[in-house]
């Protein structure tokens, strides 16, 4: 059975046998392509870009596999996710994205070349971008509750020591 487009893309992009320099060049050029596509998409965030995988690749002047990589990256930020696991060149896909999700996912991916694009300035004010950035960063922060000591008063309010109450 032949590999799906997504499997082919991931085979190239995450090839552990590839030369490190080649992979760096690959990702460097991919990130530039990705940036150019996002610049175009963010110019008209309300516009719903649709078409087959092949048509979108042609529209953005890319190879089909590069477009598959882009679709893989944006999928979680879309209003309706595309069937990336099973798609082929003729699968109809949509790039209708949720701006807030997209911005936060770019922050989560530490893709400053994307969440700092000037196109965001027309979508969100600086304060809104800072708020979204902070929300995303805090969503990954784990805060531990202060541990109750055995001989401290029980937090349930019974007045007993923790070890004699809820700590049994």
From TrEMBL:
Q: Which residue intervals make up region (Disordered)?
A: 135-168
Q: Which residues cross the membrane?
A: none
What the entry lists under InterPro entries is as follows: SEC_C_motif
Would you tell me the protein name for this molecule?
SEC-C domain-containing protein
Q: Which organism is it from?
A: Suipraeoptans intestinalis
Lineage here is:
Bacteria, Bacillati, Bacillota, Clostridia, Lachnospirales
